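Okay, is this right?
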Amino acid sequence: MSDQPSNLDIFVTHRRALLNYASSIVGSRSRAEDVVQEAWLRFHEASKGRLLEDSTSYLFRIVRNLALDGRRRMKRESLIITDDDFEAAANAWTDSVASPETVALYKDEYALVMDALAQLPERTRMAFEMHRFGGAKLREIAEALDISLPLAHRLVADAVQHCKEQLGWP
């Protein structure tokens, strides 16, 4: 048996440093945990049980790339999710036990949004409904509609903008 540490040993030894590194990029310890876990899966898949040359550097590079990708994705998605008023209205519409007051308050806006959705191209409408009403992530939408991730983001953003315009929101 070799005296060289296994890839798992390398990962376990550097896990805390990897978490700190990812956390400094993504700004959240819980998201950093996800990044490091995904990095291990990719690292393990790339190594297929063999020891990689300069494994530690490679592992840190995987964490860096995943963390930067995650940070960019969060920034893009925040452009869609930042409108709290729209989010509150969407939640009220999908609430199956809405109070009569809530129904009366949002009835007209709901009709406007439904009309706005009917005006959208089918793929754009589907992307919006999957994201806002179904809770699907942009990656899931891209896979389901067989489109790129940036296009899925753009379709949802276009639908949100169209609905806002129909409601007269800024």
Summary: The chain has a mean pLDDT of 81. Helices lie at 7-26, 29-47, 55-81, 84-94, 100-119, 122-132, 138-145, 149-167. The chain has two domains: 7-75, 83-167. Residues 55-81 form the longest helix (27 residues).
